């Protein structure tokens, strides 16, 4: 329901728009609306809708009837399909369910397939005998392959590949590689001087960076690092792990083979880079 608000006060100033404005025919005067401060209160006035309103009574809804249960009994009535049904040739008559044998009982009756069945006589299969033993002696008989064989040129009848019996012995013959081989003499390597170890002590010298350094606003002054002596002390309390601990014997570890040292001898040759270097 729309609530009418109180009209605003008219504008009483002077403006060229107000002086030159001419209302058109049929237009109403401009009326401004201001929001009502008490819009949250319910409307208590009298309206034609409120006088002619007659509340209706809610009627209870009837509960829907449950569907009838499904027909589980077999159909024993009479239908036109049953009267007009003509069984086809070769179809068996309808057997009642009660007269059918159970699935777990073997079938002992007689069928047309069983009556007309003619068993075929199986052919006897002769198994081959044991293969003859492999003859260790060479074959000295006559075969068509041997009689029709024509040896090709450069192929002897008794040519065989002879494998040397002493193949594992070293080669003691003469070769071009062995005659031209000149063994090189190994040159001794000079000992390498290791660099001095890194200085672990803190830097206590003097530098321009330290003199010109000015901490920015908000930064803290440099605090030297001081080791906490309590951290180095071992834990001497009593724990369940310490009581039930059984030390194991350390197995000796095989040292790994160190890699061969790299070539550290200085370069004593001559290069164009050294001549052109400025």
UniProtKB/TrEMBL annotation:
What is the protein name given in its UniProt record?
Uncharacterized protein
Could you tell me which residues belong to the region Disordered? 49-84, 187-210, 241-278
> Belongs to which family?
Belongs to the FAM154 family.
Lineage of source species: Eukaryota, Discoba, Euglenozoa, Euglenida, Spirocuta
Originating organism:
Eutreptiella gymnastica
InterPro entries recorded for this chain?
SAXO1/2
May I ask which residue range the UniProt record assigns to the signal sequence? Answer: none
Q: Which GO MF terms does the UniProt record name?
A: microtubule binding
GO CC term, one of those recorded: cytoskeleton
Entry superkingdom: Eukaryota
């Amino acid at each position: 329901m729309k609530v009418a608000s109180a009209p605003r006060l008219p504008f009483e100033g002077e403006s060229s728009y107000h002086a030159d404005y001419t209302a058109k025919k049929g237009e109403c005067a401009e009326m401004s609306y201001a929001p009502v401060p008490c819009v949250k209160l319910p409307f208590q006035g009298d309206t034609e809708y409120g006088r002619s309103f007659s509340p209706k009574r809610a009627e209870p809804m009837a509960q829907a009837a449950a569907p009838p249960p499904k027909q589980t009994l077999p159909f024993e009535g009479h239908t036109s399909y049953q009267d007009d049904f003509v069984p086809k040739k070769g179809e068996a008559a309808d057997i009642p369910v009660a007269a059918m044998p159970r699935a777990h009982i073997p079938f002992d009756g007689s069928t047309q397939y069983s009556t007309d069945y003619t068993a075929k006589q199986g052919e006897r299969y002769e198994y081959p005998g044991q293969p003859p033993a492999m003859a260790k002696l060479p074959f000295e008989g006559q075969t068509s392959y041997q009689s029709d064989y024509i040896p090709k040129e450069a192929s002897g009848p008794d040519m065989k590949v002879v494998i040397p019996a002493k193949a594992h012995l070293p080669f003691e013959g003469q070769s071009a590689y062995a005659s031209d081989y000149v063994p090189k003499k190994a040159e001794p390597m000079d000992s390498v001087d290791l660099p001095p170890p890194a200085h672990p002590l803190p830097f206590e010298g003097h530098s321009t960076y330290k003199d010109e350094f000015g901490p920015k606003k908000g930064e803290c002054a440099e605090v030297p690092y001081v080791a906490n002596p309590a951290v180095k002390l071992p834990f001497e309390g009593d724990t369940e792990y310490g009581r039930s601990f059984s030390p194991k014997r350390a197995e000796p570890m095989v040292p790994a083979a160190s890699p061969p040292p790299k070539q550290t001898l200085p370069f004593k040759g001559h290069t164009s880079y050294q001549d052109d270097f400025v």
